[in-house]
Amino acid sequence: MNGTSPAYDVVVLGAGPTGENLADRTRAAGLTTVIVENELLGGECSFWACEPSKALLRPVLARADARRVPGLRRAVEGPLDVPAVFEHRDAMAAHWQDADQVEWLDSVSVDLVRGHGRLNGPRQVVVDTPDGERVELTARHAVAVCTGTVTALPDLPGLADVRPWTNRQATAARQVPDRLAVVGGGVVAVEMATAFRALGSEVTMLVRGGLLGRMEPFAGEMVTDALREAGVDLRFGRSVTGVEREDGGDGPVRVTTDDGDTVVADEVLFATGRAPHTGDIGLETVGLTPGGWLPVDDSFRVPEVSEGWLYAVGDVNHRALMTHQGKYQARIAGAVIGARAKGEPLDDGTWGRHAPTADSAAVPQVVFTEPEVASVGPTAREAERAGLKVDVVDYDIGRIAGAVQYAEGYQGRARVIVDTGRRNVVGATFVGPGVQELLYSATVAVTSEVPVDRLWHAVPAFPTISEVWLRILETYRDSDGTAA
């Protein structure tokens, strides 16, 4: 294909999970599709985020569970086998090879151009390939930007010279640092602090606010308690003002905070948010600002670009920055592009086939700390700010028979948000060991808008942790008598 100027119905920039799913759906709609990627097919999630990070955390959580099971504690008293953990991580990251992804693209008849792709005017994309050639692509119907995000690093003098870790260096680490400083209090920060503390690092967290600030407050509080119990040094209300690697750039890192405190560590991980990966993809050629987010309408079109050919899907549109939401958006956007190409009307009403309703009403998330945190829909505060009148129902998961069976001394908490006007569940948060498996049932309840009265007929098996649903209904009924 090098040196040619082929035309396709759809050109996709970025072959992470979002781009791959969108290409699959447009191809399934009968549209010729090409995908452009400068790194590994599968993107951040497959190689530097979701897959390798959860591979690092799985032994940590399994050991924590085993330590609370009578008869099993002594078998897991020793340290983790770090080389085995890293070997497992490498396997889950496919040893940073994407041959399987290439085979999958071939199986769904999506073409691939490797190289740095940039917009070059309306419906035009140019790709500079690794061998120095230039490929010019034309899109008949749509160009979809699925380039995702990169770590947003603070503007600190000399930061590059310190060689800081981002999620990429943390999830691909070949050694466990004796001392690790973690800057930030979000998901990446707490997960990597959990993993590296269990692997043997002395971990210090420097947090401007609290942990997991976008979730229910009790989630961050419970994770804070667990990290402290594990030996993590948590320092709240701290902003980093300076970093320096000692011994001429080959020694430990000295981190200075705004209160004059210092932390010395072998490595420093900045988990301080994400920025759109749009700085060098030719946005200026279509009248957009390089480096910015790409706001979209509910069909994922970028409204600032005339004629409706440019779409932005996944993290880059800043709607819901999670892999599974990007894939969800891609499935919808692919169907939208296919329908428009055929001149078919869109089913874009609430929860319609072409409507991304879940982006605002039912975003699920799991934080793989110890304890785990799982949530879907708005928090109580968010629901109230949105103008909903809600009832908040809390329950101690540790009182459930299934939780007692799961682990001795089980500590957990559940919160369900009920819209009092429509009498259905709009949000839920669970904290505790193993709660990730409660999340899909909550997501179904939210997206299906199941009335609480109907939930009484969804009988949880005994003794499982899912019995918390019954106890929540009982608590709600007994508190105000509205649930029959």
Name its key features.
single chain; 484 residues; alpha/beta; seven-stranded mixed sheet; five-stranded antiparallel sheet; 32% helix; globular; flavoprotein
Task: Explain the layout of strands and helices.
Elements lengths: L6 E7 L3 H12 L4 E5 L5 H6 L1 H17 L15 H11 L6 H9 L3 E4 L1 E4 L4 E5 L5 E12 L3 E3 L7 H4 L4 H5 L7 E5 L3 H13 L2 E6 L9 H14 L2 E4 L3 E6 H4 L3 E5 L4 E4 L1 E4 L3 E3 L33 E3 L10 H19 L16 H4 L2 E4 L4 E5 L3 H6 L4 E7 L4 H6 L6 E7 L4 E9 L6 H9 L4 H4 L12 H13 L4
Parallel strand pairs: 1-2, 1-6, 2-3, 6-16, 8-9, 8-14, 9-10
Antiparallel strand pairs: 4-5, 5-6, 7-15, 11-12, 12-13, 17-18, 18-21, 19-20, 20-21
Helix pairs in contact: 1-11, 3-4, 3-8
Protein described:
The chain is α/β, with parallel strands linked by helices. The chain is built from 17 helices and 21 strands. Strands 1, 2, 3, 4, 5, 6 and 16 form a seven-stranded mixed beta sheet that branches. A five-stranded antiparallel beta sheet has the order 17-18-21-20-19, with helices on both faces. Helix 1 links the parallel strand 1 (7-13) and strand 2 (33-37). Helix 3 crosses helix 4. The longest helix has 19 residues, at 323-341. It starts with 6 loop residues before the first strand and ends with a helix. The mean pLDDT is 96. Its EC number is 1.-.-.-. Its cofactor is FAD. Residues 8-325 form the FAD/NAD(P)-binding domain.
